[in-house]
Design brief:
With 115 residues, this protein is mainly alpha-helical. It has 6 helices and no strands. It has helices spanning 4-16, 20-33, 38-50, 54-67, 72-84, 88-103. Helix 2 packs antiparallel against helix 3 (38-50). 30% of the residues are buried.
C-alpha cells in the first residue's frame, strides 16, 4: 500500500509548482486509500475553494471537523472556507463554535460536544 504522508508531500509539491489540478488529483488518490487522513481533507478544502469548486471545498472542510470534532482550528478553517465560498451565515456559525471551544479550553464549556 502507498504511504499517505509521502503522497501528501507529493501533492503539496505539485501545488507549490502551480499545478493545483494535479495536486487535487493526488489528494483524491490519498482519499481513496486513507479517507481519514485529516491533512488531505484539509488541503482538499483549500484547493477546491481556490479552484472555485465551493460545494466540494465545504464538504472537505466539514470532513475535517468530523475527523477532529474537538479541534477549534478545524472549526476556524470551516468558517474561512464558508466565508470564501460566500456563505456568510454558515461562516459565522462555524466561527462562533470555534470561539466557544477556544474560550472553554476545548472542553468544559460545551466545546467537546457534551451538553
Amino acid at each position: 500500500m502507498s504511504n499517505p504522508d509521502l503522497m501528501y508531500d507529493e501533492a503539496i509539491a505539485l501545488k507549490d509548482k502551480g499545478n493545483l489540478p494535479a495536486a487535487v488529483e493526488k489528494l483524491h488518490e490519498i482519499e481513496v486509500i486513507a479517507p481519514t487522513h485529516s491533512l488531505t481533507q484539509s488541503a482538499l478544502a483549500i484547493m477546491q475553494q481556490k479552484l472555485g469548486k465551493f460545494d466540494e471545498a465545504i464538504a472537505h472542510a466539514k470532513k475535517v471537523v468530523e475527523l477532529n470534532p474537538n479541534d477549534s482550528f478545524s472549526q476556524s478553517q470551516l468558517s474561512v472556507i464558508y466565508q470564501r465560498c460566500g456563505r456568510i451565515p454558515e461562516a459565522e456559525d462555524a466561527l462562533a463554535r470555534s470561539r466557544t471551544m477556544t474560550a472553554g479550553g476545548g472542553c468544559g464549556s460545551g466545546g467537546c460536544g457534551h451538553h
